[in-house]
Amino acid sequence: MLAEPERFSGTGALLPEQPAVLAAAMDAYLAFDTSGRVVAWNPAAEATFGYTHKHAYGRSVEELIVPPQARQAARAELASLAGGLSGHTLGRRLQWTARHADGHDLPIEMTLTATDNNGGRVFHVFAHDVTTAQRASRFIAVEAAVARGLAEADSSTSAAARVVEAVGVKMGWPVTELWVVDEDRQILICAARHVEPGRQLRDFCIDVLEPGVALPGRVCADGTPHWIPDLGTDAGSLRSRAAARLGLHVAVGVPLCTGRHVLGALCVYGDRVEDPEDTLLGLLSGLAAQIGQYVERRRAEELAIELARTKDEFLAMVTHELRNPLMVITGTTALLDEDIEDLPTDERRHYLRIIVRNAERLSIMAEDLLDLARLESGHLAINPTSTDLCEIIHQALNAAAPPPDKNLTITVSLPERLQLYADPARLRQVADNLLSNAIKYTPAGGTVTITVTTDDNDHHITWTVADTGIGIPAAERPRLFRRFYRASTALEHRIPGTGLGLVIARTIIERHHGTITLSDHTGPGTTFTIELPTKPR
Ligand code: ADP
Q: Which domains does the chain have, with CATH numbers?
């Protein structure tokens, strides 16, 4: 005879002849008849599936623990078992996914057996939750995949991509990101992002963050793991709310550290996290330590290569850019020295102007090299004060003196005044560099256009310098702000230059919390766009 419900209520007690062993069993035990009605449900089943015995007894086992997508197959299996067949499940040890009372799915290992008695056939299930075991093997697989990714990658970029893919795919997180700190520019850059197929990220998908901002920024700022259990209520972060709008609910971020130095952050975003907080943090922190060591080793190697390359480029630049004006100066001085008595005054002046122009070129180069050294050592001083950008641009225009034979048209569209909080001398350096480049790289008859506008509440300035000159090939644009980099167009036209001005300009603008970018261009020429805040931070 099968147990009555009231004899089980709240206790998970069992058939009189087997209470002790099944009530004390660590495995979930449940039994059901040929119609699928639950006839036994022990305390471990209560703990595993979340239903009390009282709640489960007499209900359909399918409705209780079979996920909707598996119900049709389960019904067919029960029909064949009820008909006396052995089906696919009877007498076997199976891995299966069950549905918990709170709606989440859990992996279980189970056996199904049948007994026949007077009341008909009864099926017995012994099951246990294998989430922990599966998690452990998943963690081992992630660690192995990350280690393999790091060992096989041939650059930091491909290592970052392999790491986020390994973590995202193996752990099943919808979004995994690896952020690294760019110390030069004092920002965080998303080195790689893995997104599960079919998920759109819209405004959540940004690649640059300021320190302290959003989850990656917070993790890097204080160098400790962060756990956001509910992104929708994370009031301090716009990005958290953008994630919540995409259906992402929880997020975890751990720092990539070596010693006390924070190199970046590994962040994952999920719909729900079934792992206990501390186990997951343990796994992620272990991975982050591994990645941190790799990043530091790789940075040291890349720095050594970069220094060697810089040394070569520096030597090439100095040899060319220093020797040319020096040769002009020494040659012209020798010529003047020899013929000074015979040369008419006009010609003497002409030669003197050549000497002055070339000496100025050398002096600008010396200043740029000094600025570069200050920039590399972090000592490029910025002294902001209330400054009129329009006045600075007018000063740069007055000093520019484009060669008259070039016949350039220079068009300017500026408000009368535009006050912002900035270092006037440094902004003048930027204005001089962009204007002199536009003039230098634009052939005769071209046009240079400078515009400055502000947003509606005067908080942001957009300053563009456009020309119709030789342009910069799209493929080379990402390298443009590297020191000593010169575009192929400049080299083909044999236009002199050092490749230093834009690096310095970018540092100055970024120290003013602004950005300088090369805009996409249709038609010939180049457009630089600078965005600057007007107010101090
Ligand atoms: P320089 O002009 O002394 O070489 P910059 O750092 O100012 O150094 O510029 C770096 C490179 O960017 C230049 O060598 C040139 O190839 C390219 N460039 C900069 N501005 C322009 C422009 N307006 N038009 C075309 N190319 C430009």
A: 5-129 (3.30.450.20), 134-296 (3.30.450.40), 381-537 (3.30.565.10)
Read off the pTM: 0.51
Residue 12: pLDDT over 60? no
How many whole angstroms separate alpha carbon 54 and alpha carbon 147? 49
Tokens 């700190």: give the residue: 181
Sign of CA dihedral 234, 239, 244, 249: negative
CA of 201 to the centre of ligand 1 (A): 36
Instruction: State percent of the chain over pLDDT 90.
Output: 47
Tell me if 175 sits within 8 A of 195, measured CB to CB: yes
Q: What is the pLDDT of residues 277-294, one digit of tens each?
A: 677 888 888 888 888 888
Q: How far is the CA of 441 from the centre of ligand 1 (A)?
A: 7
Q: Is 506 in the pocket of ligand 1 (CB under 6 A)?
A: no
Q: Hey, which residues does 531 pair with through a beta bridge?
A: 462, 515
Pocket test for ligand 1, best of 365, 450, 486, 495 (most atoms within 8 A of CB): 486
The protein residue whose alpha carbon is closest to atom 2 in ligand 1 is 497
